[in-house]
Amino acid sequence: MAKDFDRVGSTKGVGFEKESRDAEGEMDMKGAHRIGSASSSFPGLNNSGSDQETVKRMKGLGFLFTVALTLLGFCHVFVAAVERNDEERRTYIVHMATSQMPESFQERAHWYDSSLKSVSESAEMLYKYSNVIHGFSTRLTAEEARSLQGRPGILSILEEVRYELHTTRTPEFLGLDKSADLFPESGSASEVIIGVLDTGIWPESKSFDDTGLDPSPVAGKASYEATLGPIDERKESKSPRDDDGHGTHTATTAAGSVVEGASLFGFAEGTARGMATRARIAAYKVCWIGGCFSTDILAALDKAVEDNVNILSLSLGGGMSDYYRDSVAMGAFGAMEKGILVSCSAGNSGPSPYSLSNVAPWITTVGAGTLDRDFPAFVSLGNGKNYSGVSLYRGDPLPGTLLPFVYAGNASNAPNGNLCMTNTLIPEKVAGKMVMCDRGVNPRVQKGSVVKAAGGIGMVLANTGTNGEELVADAHLLPATAVGQKYKGWYPTLTGGAAFSSRGPNSITPDILKPDLIAPGVNILAGWSGAVGPTGLPTDKRHVDFNIISGTSMSCPHISGLAGLLKAAHPEWSPAAIRSALMTTAYTNYKSGQKIQDVATGKPSTAFDHGAGHVDPVSALNPGLIYDLTVDDYLNFLCAINYSAPQISILAKRNFTCDTDKKYSVADLNYPSFAVPLQTPLGGGGEGSSTVVKHTRTLTNVGSPSTYKVSIFSESESIKISVEPGSLSFSELNEKKSFTVTFTATSMPSNTNIFGRIEWSDGKHVVGSPIVVSWT
């Protein structure tokens, strides 16, 4: 019998996507611990009071946790390290063509079970999926999987994939404090539900106080563990309780209640609040110590549709693959069909190009930007020079005298000793000294722990060329300061794109510009779990109510919460309309006129870094015009990228055949940005040859009657851009008008990118779209 996972309810929350990674693969801030499944009696909640007392507290607050629970994702041994054979059972997701169900079956579940039993009497379904996809997950040998693939009605069988998890200031920074009266604070606002797929939540957090909200329904079904063995309750609980902190942080960022006097050790002290303070949170626990597994993610997405969530927030990602093989993309398509906006983190693999995750056009892909806030610390050398850095250390200070200073690379016999990895430092060479470690590979906070374990009394953490001048503050276990590359300084007065934030181009569909936009993702203060210290290290015994961490995990729930505000203000808007409003009103220049900076290079960032720009929620509330999209538009897009009928059916969950008499083009997808990938040389000619590409778009009026005129900006004469017509007049609400953009491109060397922008304005609204023309 297929296993359901617990649902305990939904109300409040604040936000999360995994902390930033350095480009070398470093998991910044802390480890990726994941939590387990919960039953209606919440086993494992004895971390803080009795199980029954905790349940009563949750119910009294009207909380609705929805927990996607399976132990399928719990594994202490990396699967890749295990030699497999055909007799070993693995987890598979089986996609079914329900239109092919034989008439002899009355229910899909019976057909699924019969199909499964035809290849294995002992195999059991782990999950039945009925909303975002059609099918089930199970454990099979390779031979059984091959046999099942040949059965009637089987669209595809995909092996399970593991994904990784990729405040007080941000509401002010985004203008929400001065514009709170513009957004609904009751009624429709409290009816919006934001589903957060993460590591669970910490229910005692003050950010989850739902005083003043109407009671929400509490639903409960028994939860079951899946197949990889029982949860080790010495390391994580079976309940939806967050033992990691990441889920609490992301949920509270998205929709945390107002909490006065919030801070981390006195840093960033002020009033903490999420983006949508009156929205409700449905928390789906899909991530464990072993990672976030695709079967659990799909089960949570499936249940979220059933739970009628309005927004889904996923601060996680994995490797890139075609949309019909990507579980997040498949599940997000099903959610989009139900009118749910899906917001995902772009990833923390920047500043390398082609490093994005979650690039499907029906997903809102969020990169990370910085805040106009830092936590300054200083390094003073014996030669009289002083260097600025950042730190969140709060503890016993260093002695007020100069200390001996050693570079970790000179205090280690290991080839990577400069990185201060575990057991690489020689205690005799670092004891009683300040140690300089290079950033990269292992977590920043772990480097400090390694220095401390070897006898060092302080650390200077230096950026490498990959990080540029990006400075990320951490709550280190010893006195420590992060400094820029080679102590060259930093940019304390500017905000910009975070160096770790993953970058375009889009490796799956270059014609779709990603990321869509950026939001605050560096040094974000939000709620935290009481089960783990701020660094997440086992040796960190400190307990905090709030923590400051960084990553696109943090930027994603900002957009999720803001999307919730827009949904409350405009309940009739589609997911595409909400995304359009957020994108077309985003800014790419500071108020001074200076362009947003790329912190990795110190140069102006581009659309491959920031997408449409940095979110501006106040402007998004009244965008004037929007680019809307329907399910059929996305199906036509799939035809344009030459997906076969079976591949499209996996996403659409129904028979869909592309019309052979119709010409499909990605350029016709009504997206709020323009990406024009070209081959070099163009037109089969040499230098000076050119080609012409046309994109068609349709704008919908969501404001007052008005006439909009177009402005075109291009950074190079090698690309000529024209728009026809040059003005659009709207006389009524929801009126639609189309226009065509013509790109005439002169041949350029390979790997050349030209950036530009189109803006429609009526004098009150500015509806902007980024442009990138690339030669490959």
Q: Give unreliable regions as ranges.
A: 1-86, 217-224, 488-495
Radius of gyration: 26 Å
Mean pLDDT: 82
| Total strand segments | 37
Can you tell me the CATH topology of the largest domain? Answer: Rossmann fold
User: How many individual helices?
Assistant: 16
Structural class category: alpha/beta
CATH architecture of the largest domain: 3-Layer(aba) Sandwich
Q: Roughly what fraction of the amino acids lie in strands?
A: 15-25%
CATH evolutionary superfamily of the largest domain: Peptidase S8/S53 domain
Shape: globular
- The termini sit apart by 51 Å
Which class of the largest domain in CATH terms?
A: Alpha Beta
Q: What is the number of domains?
A: 4
Percent of residues in helices: 10-25%
Q: Main β-sheet: number of strands, strand sense, barrel status? A: 6 strands, parallel
Strand arrangement within the widest β-sheet reads 11-8-14-15-16-24
How do the helices and strands line up, and which of them pair or pack?
Elements: E1 7-9, H1 51-61, E2 64-66, E3 90-96, H2 108-117, E4 125-129, E5 135-140, H3 142-149, E6 154-159, E7 162-163, H4 170-173, H5 188-191, E8 193-198, H6 246-255, E9 259-264, E10 267-272, E11 280-285, E12 287-288, E13 291-293, H7 294-306, E14 311-314, H8 327-337, E15 341-345, E16 364-369, E17 376-380, E18 386-390, E19 405-407, H9 427-430, E20 434-438, H10 444-453, E21 458-462, E22 480-483, E23 496-497, E24 517-520, E25 524-527, E26 546-549, H11 552-569, H12 575-584, E27 597-598, E28 603-604, H13 607-610, H14 617-620, E29 625-626, H15 631-640, H16 645-652, E30 674-678, E31 690-701, E32 706-714, E33 719-724, E34 727-730, E35 736-746, E36 752-761, E37 766-775
Parallel strand pairs: 8-11, 8-14, 14-15, 15-16, 16-24, 19-20, 20-21, 21-22, 23-27, 30-37
Antiparallel strand pairs: 1-2, 3-5, 3-6, 4-5, 7-13, 9-10, 12-13, 17-18, 18-22, 25-26, 27-28, 29-31, 31-35, 32-34, 32-36, 33-35, 36-37
Helix pairs in contact: 6-11, 7-8
Active site: 198 (charge relay system), 246 (charge relay system), 553 (charge relay system)
Transmembrane segments: 61-82
Domain Inhibitor I9: 91-166
